[in-house]
Specification:
By secondary structure, this protein is mainly alpha-helical. It has one domain: Up-down Bundle (Substrate Binding Domain Of Dnak, Chain:A, Domain 2), CATH 1.20.1270.90. Helices cover 60% and strands 6% of the residues. The chain contains 6 helices and 4 strands. Strands 1-2 form a two-stranded antiparallel sheet. Helix 2 runs antiparallel to helix 3, helix 3 runs parallel beside helix 6 and helix 4 packs antiparallel against helix 5. It is globular and about 45 Å long.
Length: 178
């Protein structure tokens, strides 16, 4: 799949996505912010890679903030990355790996442990951690584009959890979009 085809698929998913919570509710603003970040990733992706940007849509759907609820986990992207971008891909992949690694240790579950939202926060953190682990495997295998997609995807899940109030930042605040 070409970069243009991936970008078109993402744009179509973004256009179909709607805020699922009623306007005026406490989560309406969080839903809007998650959707806004997905759009920002698309804009950034248009200038470099179209990998990982669907993490915001998927996390927002899992949180119940966005609809439709369709999963878009990263697939194979390496074949479509131009050789001229190899150095930038290497830098960005390693930067996202470090950022996600630090971010995973820089948050705590915000809601009380007896709350269903606490279990939800743990699910989002577990999802981010799983994509980090998968990304490390791709990185170790030399698949930079696949690793970047997974690090970016996992990062979006963690960042969306911050925006939705499921996590408290206990470390470096600059890692998150709040």
């Amino acid at each position: 799949m070409t970069l243009e085809e991936q970008g078109a698929l993402f744009l179509e998913a973004l256009r179909r996505t709607r805020v699922a919570v009623p306007e005026g509710t406490l989560l309406y603003r969080a839903a809007g912010e998650v959707l806004e970040m997905a759009a920002a990733y698309h804009s950034d992706g248009m200038t470099f890679l179209r990998t990982g940007e669907l993490g915001w849509l998927d996390a927002g759907s899992r949180l119940g903030l966005l609809e439709p609820s369709i999963a878009h986990p990263p697939g194979a992207a390496g074949a479509c990355i131009p050789a001229a971008l190899a150095a930038r891909l290497d830098e960005k992949t390693h930067r996202y790996q470090r950022m996600l690694e630090i971010a995973l240790s820089a948050v705590e579950t915000g809601p009380d442990e007896a709350s269903p939202l606490s279990r939800g926060a743990e699910e989002l953190r577990s999802t981010a951690r799983s994509w980090y682990t998968d990304g490390r495997g791709r990185l170790d295998a030399g698949d930079l584009a696949g690793a970047l997609a997974r690090f970016s995807y996992g990062y979006a899940w963690l960042d969306a959890g911050i925006r939705a109030g499921l996590f408290r930042i206990t470390g470096e605040r600059g890692l998150f979009t709040v």
